[in-house]
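Sample intake sheet
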Amino acid sequence: MPSIKIPSPLRPYTGSQAQISVEGKTVGAALNSLVDQYPDLRQHLYNGDDLRNFVNVFLGEEDIRFLDGLETELDDEDNLRIIPSIAGGRAI
C-alpha cells in the first residue's frame, strides 16, 4: 500500500500523523484516498479539483509535475511526499 509523508504544517489535520497509508494506483487516487480519510486536508491541498499551485508532490526524488502529474502510476511500496512551497522573507 503506498504511503504519503505529511509535512509538519499539515499534521494537525491528520491527527499528528507524519505518514499515512493510502489506497490508489495513481498519485491522484492516492491523494483522493488521503483526503477521504482526512477531509479537512482538502482545502489545503486542492483548489476545486486541481492541486493548489504551492502544493508540491514528490514520488521519491521526482516532482510529479515532471512525471505524469496526478496520473503518475504507483506501486504498493511507493512513498509520496507533500512539500508545501515557502514564500515570503526579506531581501538582504
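Comment: The mean pLDDT is 92. The chain has two helices and seven strands.
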